[in-house]
Specification:
With about 900 residues, the chain is an alpha/beta fold. The protein contains 28 helices and 31 strands. The longest helix has about 55 residues. It is flat. The relative contact order is 0.05.
Length: about 900
């Protein structure tokens, strides 16, 4: 046995060394409250498990999302051994670096550990304790932000309960230990309570008795004696027995009633008492923890007194054993092992019987009501047929007689021709079956008002579905005839076919909408162009100075973090301007002939990261895809915008599918989709199985700043940007979506019929700096001029500056031999950048030119597409981007 103990300790030591060398940190789910619970004793101990269950049940009832992590000191099984010290050291190492929102501790050892190590392990984290013996405010006076539930023994109350239930009691025998600190504290507490115990009682303490001797004494106890179990005992072999085992053993050899102060002994042989409940301690501590997690400060919540947490609890079987009447039991006492009542034993049968009887009664009522309605309907139908038979002959409009139940009782020939059905077929249907679904609710609403007597007639425009599936528009007029009691006897309907009139009006409305949309787009385009130039100039100055300042700081410095925030904010602002320009089809792009499959495949990994782990991304490319001519960055924008919208539309687990294909749109397709032109197209589709889009929202999804997302989750520019990109490339969009059935966005880009050439390969290397060249920088904004000069000089270039085109021409005439490149703004007073470049080339043929602008205004681009051979850099730009563009311009043939 000793060899086994040594081996066990060696294993623990090795495990401790291994885990100490490995950085351990608790992994907590993001966005949920995190609670760390440290127990003094081991898992499996009845007391510890009861506390844990109380905490868990309290959290589950109020906030199931709370994440719980539990640790155990195991100080009961290893109170003073070297192994206990190692467990403590291992736990401290394990907890190092954890950051819970709240720490909870049970019993004294765990509280002492946390108070001792709080500044190192849990600075500023609130603490809630429970199960603390001998509590006094001094224990936590030096520790802020802490509260909890104390543990006090209800000794006097339990003694008085025993005297109340056993009036002939003359002696109390207290069984316990002095070798364990907790039991010794319990003994001292009992002694301290003796002055409040009736003086006629004789109190005897049986401490640390071995099993055989304790058994002998128990067997000799006489009536008039009451036992109090104050701690655990050992059996004949010297093995310590646990709570229920201790109680059963004592009850086996004793004929007198036994009481205790802890719930863990209840149900195994004691009568009961006013008991300390581990479960109740855990629930009360859990309630305090919830208050703290909801915002209260722990040190403003008073510590719950131990006696307030105790409760009278009795074993019903022991009451019967000692013939104790329930009339002597205190009010509000909780019982274990109490027999169930007839209702408790047969609750399911009782409720099943009640339900069956109620269902049968309801069925009788329903059947009676149905029979009555049927008889009334038959009688009304016969009267209507007789009255209206002759009225329907040879009418020029559709006419019908309908019942209050919405069935057609009689129809004329004109209505049959309008709807394409025979008379017999129509009479077997209701008008609701042939009504176009979107018009049904309005008609039923008016029909219900007619039946209720609120109106006697109504008219509305309504669509019907013919037998061949086509839709007709009608002007519907409805009236009714009421009987002597004021109830509707029958309904008369007149229908005029206005389909041709509606189609003509629809064409006019469609043309009007297209005109309004074009005007709206043009207005936004002018607004975007006006904003882009000045706004991007300001962003260039901000980003340039920020980037230059960041080069002067170390990444670890405090100013670097602030500069990084400014940089990111400015970049997001620049992105909004680009989105506006894209929507208005005024974004400056450099189209290339490319394969959409290759471009999409290169983005799949990034798109899957955007989707997250709960959404799968399916890629279905068609081989042999036709080439298209488009800016590759715009394909990236299209995919990112569509995939983000698809992700946001999926509430949980789902799938997003990207597919490509070659499509030929013929005249038949374009007749249904008037914005399309027949031809060959490359189709790029993104589908999801999310919530879908309602019909009302579907007509507005491409409008700028329109969004169906929650506030704060979108700018409303994603799909409008997407729309602008497709239209800028002469493409078309087709959207299919229904609520609850997901959405599919299909993009059709024109096939490129020319020579594709070799695809350009984007260099990933850092662009080189200056090789001794001189740059003439022309910019009418002084701030941009200065920051541009600083950025170029930071790259090693020699820089000459001019704040007007006239000064630039003077510089070129005077120093043309030194200047290798002119970097000019596009929109300037006197002349634009294109005109200035032509004038400079007259002075120095072969001069390299680089154009910069926040908005080109069609000076160097047509409809946003750069002219061939033009090197352009979009404001705002970074030093790295500037370096690449300057080098590209210098090295271009």
């Amino acid at each position: 046995m000793k060899r086994f103990t040594c081996l066990f300790q060696l294993i623990w030591a090795a495990l401790f060394v291994l885990l100490s060398a490995w950085p351990v940190q608790a992994q907590w789910p993001q966005g949920k409250s995190r609670v760390l619970i440290i127990h003094s004793y081991h898992s499996g101990l009845t007391w510890t498990d009861a506390i844990m269950n109380g905490i868990r049940d309290t959290f589950a009832a109020s906030d199931p999302g709370i994440q719980i992590s539990a640790e155990y000191l195991d100080s009961r099984r290893y109170p003073k051994s070297d192994l206990s010290r190692r467990i403590r050291e291992f736990l401290l190492e394990k907890l190092n670096g954890t950051t819970p929102d709240l720490v909870m501790v049970s019993d004294n050892n765990a509280l002492e550990l946390v108070l001792e190590q709080r500044n190192r392990l849990f600075p500023g984290i609130p603490i809630v304790f429970c199960g603390i013996n001998d509590f006094s405010p001094a224990m936590i006076s030096s520790c802020p932000d802490i509260t909890g539930v104390a543990e006090d023994l209800s000794i006097v109350e339990t003694v008085n309960l025993a005297l109340r239930l056993h009036p002939d009691t003359g002696e109390i025998v207290v069984i316990g230990r002095t070798t364990v600190a907790a039991d010794r504290y319990n003994r001292d507490s009992f002694i301290a309570a003796l002055p409040r115990v009736p003086s006629h009682l004789k109190v005897t303490f049986w401490d640390d008795l071995p099993g055989p001797e304790l058994k002998s004494r128990l067997e000799k106890l006489e009536s008039g004696t009451v036992l109090f179990i104050n701690g655990l005992i050992t059996d004949h072999s010297g093995r310590q027995m646990m709570y229920g085992e201790t109680t059963k053993w004592i009850s086996q050899y004793s004929k007198v009633p036994a009481y205790s102060f802890w719930e863990v002994y209840l149900g195994y042989g004691i009568v009961g008492g006013k008991l300390v409940s581990g479960y109740r301690q855990g629930r009360m501590a859990g309630q305090l923890a919830l208050r703290i997690l909801r915002g209260e400060r722990a040190d403003r919540i008073p510590v719950v007194a131990g006696l307030d947490a105790n409760h009278y609890m009795l074993d019903y079987r022991q009451l019967e054993r000692f013939r104790i009447p329930l009339s002597k039991v205190p009010q509000g006492t909780l019982f274990v092992h109490r027999p169930d009542s007839f209702y408790d034993r047969h609750k399911t049968l009782v409720w099943t019987t009640v339900s069956v009887v109620a269902a049968l009664g309801a069925l009788v009522i329903l059947l009676s009501t149905a029979i009555l309605h049927r008889r009334n309907a038959e009688r009304a139908l016969k009267v209507s047929e007789e009255r209206m038979r002759l009225f329907f002959e040879r009418q020029i409009v559709g006419m019908a007689i309908a019942s209050p139940e919405m069935g057609w009782l009689q129809v004329n020939d004109r209505l049959c021709r309008m709807l394409g059905y025979s008379r017999e077929e129509l009479l077997r249907k209701t008008w609701t079956e042939l009504t176009y679904p979107d018009d049904l609710a309005a008609d039923i609403e008016q029909f219900d008002r007619l039946l209720a007597g609120a109106i006697n007639e109504y008219t509305l425009e309504k669509r019907f579905v013919r037998r061949d599936g086509t839709i007709i528009f009608t002007d519907l007029s409805v009236g009714c005839v009421r009987n002597a009691r004021g109830r509707v006897d029958y309904v008369l309907a007149l229908l005029e076919d206005i389909t041709e009139r509606k189609e003509a009006a629809g064409e006019r409305e469609k043309l009007q909408e297209q005109l309004i949309q074009a005007q709206k787009l043009e207005s936004i385009g002018r607004l975007a162009g006006g904003v882009a130039h000045d706004f991007n100039n300001m962003l260039t100055a901000i980003l340039g100075h920020v980037e230059l300042s960041m080069r002067l700081c170390t990444p670890e410095g405090p100013i670097y973090t602030s500069l990084k925030v400014i940089e990111e904010s400015a970049l997001r602002s620049a992105g909004l301007v680009r989105q506006l320009l894209a929507f208005a089809r005024r974004q400056t792009v450099a189209p290339k002939v490319l394969d959409v499959n290759d471009t999409t495949a290169s983005m799949l990994k990034m798109l899957q990261r955007l989707m997250g782990e709960s959404i799968s991304l399916v890629w279905l490319p068609q081989m042999g895809l036709w080439p298209v001519r488009v800016d590759p960055s715009q394909i990236d924008q299209l995919l990112v915008n569509l995939c983000i919208n698809a992700r946001d539309a999926i509430p949980g687990v789902g799938r997003v599918t990207i597919e490509t294909g070659n499509k030929v749109l013929d005249e038949t397709y374009c007749a249904v989709h008037p914005d399309c032109v027949p031809g060959e197209y490359v189709m790029l589709a993104v589908s999801d199985d999310g919530d879908g889009i309602g019909k009302d929202a579907l007509g507005h999804i491409f409008e700028p700043f329109f969004t169906t997302k929650e506030p704060g989750r979108g700018t409303g520019l994603g799909l409008s940007t997407f729309y602008g990109i497709v239209k800028q490339n002469n493409g078309y969009i087709h959207v299919c979506s229904e609520p609850g059935k997901g959405s599919t966005f299909r993009i059709y880009l024109p096939r490129f019929a020319g020579d594709a050439g070799e695809p350009a390969v984007e260099s990933k290397a850092e662009p080189p700096g200056s090789r001794g060249e001189t740059v003439l920088l022309v910019e009418d904004e002084a701030v941009i001029l200065h920051v541009g000069q600083a950025m170029l000089e930071a790259l090693g270039y020699r820089v000459l500056t001019a704040d007007t085109p006239g000064k630039a021409l003077q510089q070129m005439r005077a120093r043309s031999g030194e200047i290798d490149l002119v970097l000019t703004d596009v929109v300037m007073p006197e002349m634009n950048g294109r005109e200035l470049a032509e004038r400079l080339l007259d002075i120095k043929p072969g001069l390299k030119c680089l154009f910069a602008s926040g908005y080109t205004a069609d000076v160097i681009a047509r409809d946003g597409v750069l002219e061939e051979g033009v090197v352009f850099i979009q404001k705002p730009f970074s030093i790295k981007h500037l370096a690449a563009k300057v080098r590209e311009a210098l090295e271009r043939e």
